[in-house]
UniProtKB/TrEMBL annotation, chain A:
UniProt superkingdom: Eukaryota
The protein's name in its UniProt record: Codanin 1
Ranges of Polar residues composition bias in the record: 257-273
Positions with biased composition (Low complexity): 210-225
Pfam family, one: Codanin-1_C
Codanin-1 C-terminal domain: residues covered: 787-901
Coiled-coil regions listed: none
GO annotation terms (biological process): chromatin organization
Region (Disordered): 59-87, 180-241, 254-273
GO cellular component, as recorded: nucleus
Automatic annotation (TrEMBL), chain B:
Naturally occurring in which organism (per UniProt): Pundamilia nyererei
Protein name stated in the entry: CDAN1-interacting nuclease 1
InterPro entries linked to this entry: CDIN1
Subcellular localization, as worded in the UniProt entry: Cytoplasm; Nucleus
Pfam families named in the record: TPD (PF14811)
Chief location bin: cytoplasm
Gene: cdin1
Gene Ontology terms: cellular component: cytoplasm; nucleus
Highest taxon of source: Eukaryota
GO annotation terms (biological process): erythrocyte differentiation
Amino acid sequence: MAALLESLLSQKVDIIKVVEWLKSAGDEDKLSISELGLTVHKEEFVPFLLNFLREQSSQALTHGPATPAKTPSRPRPASASGGNGTRAASRVQLFSPSFVPASRPSGSERRGGQRIMLGDYMVSPPDFQHRRGGHYIDETGGRRSVRGGEGYGRIIEQVSPPSVGQLNFNNLEEFPPVGSSPISPAASKPTRRINPTPVSAERPRSKPKTCFTSTPFSKPSSPLSGVVPLEGSMTGGSSLSLQEERELLKKEKTKRAQQVGSPQPSSLEPCTPTKTVLKTGSKVTPEQQTTCPEPSKVTFSLELDLLVELYSTCISENLVPNIFLELFFVMQLLTSRSPHTHDDEQESLCAAHSHSGVQPVHNCVYFAVKVLENQFQLVAHLDKCTLRLLAENERVASFSPHLRDLLTQAQDKSTAKVTELYLSTFIHSVPFQPDTDNRSNFSSDKAFHIFKKQRDIFYEVLREWEDFHKEPGWNFDTALGNRIRGMMSQMTSAGNHSHFARLFLKQLIQMCKGPRVNSTSGDAPDADLLGMLGAEGLGRLKRLEERLIQPHGVVGPCSPPSFPGYQEFFRDFLQAASCCQLNQHLQDSLCQQLLQLDEVSILSPPASICERDKEEEEEDGDMEQQKQRFSSVLLLARLLAKFLGFISFLPYQTSEKPSREIQDTAIALRSKSVPVLDVCAVLRNSIRRRHTILTVPWLVEFLSMLDFIGPRLLCYRTTLGTLLLFACRKLVLDRCEEMCYLNKLLMVSVLGWLFQIPVIPEDIFFTSEFTEVAKVEESDINVAGLDCIPLVDQQLLYTCCPFLGEFRKLLAAFVSGSTAKSGGIIRKITPTSAELKDTPAAHRSQQKLQVDLEQAFFHNQPPSLRRTVEFVAERVGSNAVKHMKATLVNELVGRGEKMLRDGLGSPNSNPSKLNDSICAQLCDAGLEALARATRFCCEKSPEAIRILLPHETSPTVLATSENITKRLATEKACSWLSANITGNYIAVGPRTDKELPTGSQLLTLLQKVGETLSCRKVRQRETSVIKLHRIY
Amino acid sequence: MMRLSRAEYKEIVRWTEKLRPTRRCMKILKDKFPSHSQSTLLSIFSLEYQKWIKRTFSRHHVPDVIESYYQRYLSEAKAQPTAPVLLELANEVDLSPALMARIILDRFLQGQDGGMPSKSVLNSMLKEPSLIPDQILASNVYQCTINDCCYGPLVDCIKHAIGHEHEVLLREKLKEKNLSFLDENHLRTMGYDKTPDIILEVPVAVEGHIVHWIESKASFGDDQSHQTYLNEQFWSYWNRFGPGLVIYWYGFIGELDCQRDRGILLKDCFPTDIVTLCHATQQDRSPESQNKDKE
């Protein structure tokens, strides 16, 4: 291994050959280099390279969380590495003047304790087998090595890796109390202070309740704490004193720290992974004197370039377990700091290596910038804020102005906003539907009455949880456990499990199904607040809340599976209930719904997409709808799959990884029973039918709930292996194949995350044990599946992979670190009073209310009513567009053509003036389309609705349904028409009367009219009337 | 004005403690708090008096105490057959006259045939004293029930009528506003397990809050009754139909209206700020306004 690298670096082996080898598909696993007598396996070379890079850079990385790549812990035969690995590996010090951690200056050793492992990844050399995997700090505050610790050997003395005893968890500097700080409340002293300044209590026209700063965050009555009025503040308006508020903030912080830090009494600990968050929570505290990296001081640039090429190839070819982890590592290198001065000991060591004077940080940054350049396509898909931070990074600018320019350009294209706003916070009940819920659906009067009580108890428990779960010292099982178990035992006597399971799942879906960013749902937190801030503002408010109570730590892109928000309630409920009957009913139901979802989306969106080319031309609007539908199905499937996995593997969860013998016994036992879901078949089927973009993300959620033994069972082993092969073969980002880039990126990202979580065995990635049972069948070419449709956008990517936000945090931390002396990650927040915006806000809240009312209307109606309304609206809207195209637009184009001919025919015609006048006339007439389409929709919608709804529907319900259908249909038709016929300037506000359409806009309009009619794609922007002429 | 602050409410409660359920006392209360409506004051008094009776009733409802009341009644009634002796006895021992009448009648019937009289017989005799075999007792019971403004069949009847009246009133207001709804009876036939007075077929927004159902309460909403209603009715409605509105026609403690954001809105009258779905205006306007914009 090392020999190969050394030969490469010394240019004895041609880099092209190695890169070609890396790029070649799986069959040519071995690379033989006859000159050196080397045979190298890919699965050995890649981890070696990753570890080599980490080791080389270990000293420079004194910030941010550890980013150990999962590398196998199985010792390899020494012969495979071709001999003198150790020497070679330690000889070249590309980033760091010294790599032996023991030789660090004592001052930095303590801080570097966490980082040591980065350098401990050496794989192959036989006398250096001290690989220990990533060290996760677990909930007990101890350290456990998840990767097993064979071969600690003598290197332990030499390197003296930090042992439990050495770690001082009470040292706030070392382990700052980030939200997940594993320490006791005593250690939760805030390191970063936010001093709230008082907000003026007297604010005209605003009720005290809209002033979020006057409300303590621990206010229990609402999930969006901090937005809800205090009982007291309603009348008196006397807000809490600032001191009290700060106390509350402190309490809240403590509580959060406890929540994550304190071990749960339950033995099911490892399946509650929120508690085991890998948060080393590093704070960036730049040393007083840091070296400013300069391109001119880069040494070994040739060697670095080679490494960049090798490394980039590994990333591009999906040879690394998690591409975002690698990208994160690269960004850590970019933002690395190194002490300016070295003490004597180090100096001498450097001298011994004859590379003294190497300033590691120059090389780190050089390497990082090169890799970023190389991986620009990947980087460009990150969110806008991250791109901006990268573009503004002075190191990027000084090392590669070209990269900076590219990044600046990419910002404009990036649409992803990192919204940390979870779903809307107003809980909605599951409506009582006589069809499924009245007496006739129960076996006896008693069962019916018991269920009546159970519904009420369920919501009572939910409300209580909402109110108190953030209070310090509150414990789910203590507070609610007995009530829940009482309910379960009653349920058992009445046999109501299926009814309750349905209620439970519906409520789960209602509350946890994905962040609804556009908040069209009826469950808005507070109309006043929303009116004041708007949805965007509310998101910001939520983030502010988070920042006030939870300092951001950079966690790295490998957070373990978690149950955020309300999901926590449902998980805790199931654990407290521990009712096998309920779990069975839930499993049945979840399986059925999941498989249905998997089917549903095959049938509806792609079918209509494929036929669309001929049938409909409303691409933009339709595509947007398809994406929304897909995203909604995907998020739902992921939620259900996670809970299915949670329930299915709940019986097998253990807090510690069992010994090999226990594992073998368990495997033998469990392999006899049928798994809850035939994941292998689902995956294979999905690959064949090309809808992996839907299936893979939810399978990942399901598999992320596996217990320690699960991955070794044949069915899951096969699935994991297949996923792995699939990732390497089908998801290589740079290859332009049938799958869209963002589709692939989403899958690569979630798979990378899966391979990195603790229960998935570390050796999965670099062995054939998993892949030998797996096969990736070729997909059916005749099936036009989902995979080839660009369904994923940045928003969805970030929703499914919230850990991508870590890049932004890391870069932001660097910015604040390099400017602020205090070195806090976050700027200080000075709350100021919000001004109530005038009329626009009032108008917005009115509009919002209408939308809410519409949603509320559907809430208590049978689901079929909503489906009917949406279907009719969609069809009528589409028909309206077709009708307009066939009539008005047709006529308009004809008229335009005639005017053009007449105009050009007349003597001394001025083409450009003529153009303007025709455009103006046609544009006016084009607006007529909106009015006509509206009339069309208003006429046709009610007819259809009346025929389709049940005859017995009450007149009011019927009328309301008709009206909603009219509105939706009109909206659909008009948005398409105004986007495609009347040009951009009509739909986009705000406008003034003076703002007349410009010539070019009119031209665009004419083009659109022409395109629409002729259905011809006009690629180039027409510049003259002559071209217009050509179209017709 | 019927939405009282807790402080105002406590002030009224403090005063009621000195009063008995008589017309004269009601007058005193009214004069003391002229700005509050009579119904509100009466309702608050009634609730407080009931709480007080609940606390003290056990003192009276003991066999030997009952026996002593009965013996006193017998001897006094014998001495003054036309005087309201039972009413005076009730006032003397601080017990609601109607309850005193019930206790004595109960004891009387036991003496007649030895066994425990059935509840329905007892109730019917309280409702219709002429059914009581003893003339003097009948007139005494009658005097007790008509002079008690908090307990007794008459009060029950009045309460029921008032409750019904307000439900009718509510329905009329809704019809006036053209809001269609399903009432309790309708809902029961459909098999709902819990039924508010009104379910709106199309929800509305009141003061910015969505309302699916309306419950009418012809009483004052104090802490105790509101808490009971929340647990037994309002939350149950929320759990089935979503957010809704409670009208306490005789007012309530303002501080209790703290669950608005969670879907329970309190009002002391039929709301005026009602927003309905208004499609017609919207769709007529939108193309027009776009037309205007281009000009």
